[in-house]
């Protein structure tokens, strides 16, 4: 990031952790001087409504009316993903101020999103950390498997299974392992479906569809409160919000189930 000039103009992404300053249902627009940002540092990360979009360096104690990123899922995919980029970059820059190799101070590079060690004998360059996580919707005939995670007990929301990919593991292996660990089920015909950046704080959700192979539901009780098979034509529980890859995967499986006998 570099120091903002008073005449710099565009939209400004001001963040705090996974929260965004989003007054009047949009990002603030104008010059740095008009918005009182001329003493801050910023980095252009794209365009918003055909204007430059600047990520502003975070101030930990800044007092604003913040909007949680998840509450902005109603935005277009392009806009939501840009906000994810900003939050992930902000997290990266905050957590990589010192070299992980020699401990010296780092500085932002000018040619790409990275930081580089300022020790001339080291010069180690580090890039934003992206943590891949699989998310999978599972079909058994005309039924879909849905689970209520412990964190969703109060809202009684049922969703897909998900988990982080481990070192030395393919995405497909991660799908099989996570399903087995959380429900005791075996799956087959694992197929890639799509992905979604998920800046909480730096995940990449990689979505799959799979079919039931064998087993009876046996819950990993530390994480899963309940898991059931739901018929595609029957009543469904409270589902994830619109805009999440979880709901998109659920809808994709339901469509396959309903078309199975046609």
From TrEMBL:
UniProtKB keywords: Hydrolase, Magnesium, Manganese, Metal-binding, NAD, Zinc
Domain of life of the source: Bacteria
PROSITE patterns: NUDIX, NUDIX_BOX
Cofactor binding note from Swiss-Prot or TrEMBL: Binds 1 zinc ion per subunit.
Binding site residues for a divalent metal cation 3: 178, 182, 223
Binding site for Zn(2+): 99, 102, 117, 122
InterPro entries attached to this UniProt entry: NAD-cap_RNA_hydrolase_NudC, NudC-like_C, NUDIX_hydrolase-like_dom_sf, NUDIX_hydrolase_CS, NUDIX_hydrolase_dom, RNA_Hydrolase_NudC, Znr_NADH_PPase
Gene Ontology annotations of biological process type: NAD+ catabolic process; NADP+ catabolic process
Catalytic activity: NADH + H2O = reduced beta-nicotinamide D-ribonucleotide + AMP + 2 H(+); NAD(+) + H2O = beta-nicotinamide D-ribonucleotide + AMP + 2 H(+); a 5'-end NAD(+)-phospho-ribonucleoside in mRNA + H2O = a 5'-end phospho-adenosine-phospho-ribonucleoside in mRNA + beta-nicotinamide D-ribonucleotide + 2 H(+)
EC top class named in words: hydrolase
Cofactor(s) essential for the protein: Zn(2+); Mg(2+); Mn(2+)
GO MF annotation, one: manganese ion binding
Annotated GO CC locations: cytosol
Record: residues binding a divalent metal cation 2: 178
Residue stretches making up the Nudix hydrolase domain: 128-253
Function recorded in the entry: mRNA decapping enzyme that specifically removes the nicotinamide adenine dinucleotide (NAD) cap from a subset of mRNAs by hydrolyzing the diphosphate linkage to produce nicotinamide mononucleotide (NMN) and 5' monophosphate mRNA. The NAD-cap is present at the 5'-end of some mRNAs and stabilizes RNA against 5'-processing. Has preference for mRNAs with a 5'-end purine. Catalyzes the hydrolysis of a broad range of dinucleotide pyrophosphates.
Subunit structure, interactors included: Homodimer.
Protein name: NAD-capped RNA hydrolase NudC
Source organism per UniProt: [Actinobacillus] rossii
Lineage: Bacteria, Pseudomonadati, Pseudomonadota, Gammaproteobacteria, Pasteurellales
């Amino acid at each position: 990031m570099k120091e903002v000039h008073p005449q710099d103009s565009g939209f400004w992404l001001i963040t705090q952790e996974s929260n965004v300053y989003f007054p009047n249902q949009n990002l603030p627009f104008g010059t740095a001087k008009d918005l009182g940002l001329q003493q801050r540092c910023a980095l252009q990360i794209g365009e918003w409504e055909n204007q430059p979009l600047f990520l502003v360096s975070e101030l930990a104690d800044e007092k604003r009316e913040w909007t949680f990123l998840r509450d902005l899922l109603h935005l277009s995919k392009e806009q939501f993903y840009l906000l994810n980029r900003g939050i992930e970059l902000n997290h990266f820059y905050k957590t990589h101020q010192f070299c992980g190799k020699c401990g010296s101070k780092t500085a932002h590079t000018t040619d790409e999103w990275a930081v580089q060690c300022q020790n001339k004998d080291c010069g180690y360059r580090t890039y934003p950390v992206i943590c891949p996580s699989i998310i999978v919707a599972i079909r058994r005939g005309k039924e879909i498997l849905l689970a209520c995670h412990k964190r969703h007990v109060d809202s009684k929301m049922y969703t897909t299974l998900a988990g982080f990919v481990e070192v030395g593991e393919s995405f497909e292996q991660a799908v099989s392992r996570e399903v087995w660990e959380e429900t005791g089920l075996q799956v087959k015909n694992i197929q890639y479906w799509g992905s979604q950046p998920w800046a909480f704080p730096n995940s990449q959700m990689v979505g799959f569809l799979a079919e039931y192979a064998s087993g009876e539901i046996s819950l990993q009780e530390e994480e899963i409160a309940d898991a059931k098979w739901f018929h595609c034509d029957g009543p469904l529980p409270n589902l994830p919000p619109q805009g999440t890859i979880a709901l998109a995967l659920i809808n994709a499986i339901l469509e396959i189930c309903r078309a199975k006998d046609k």
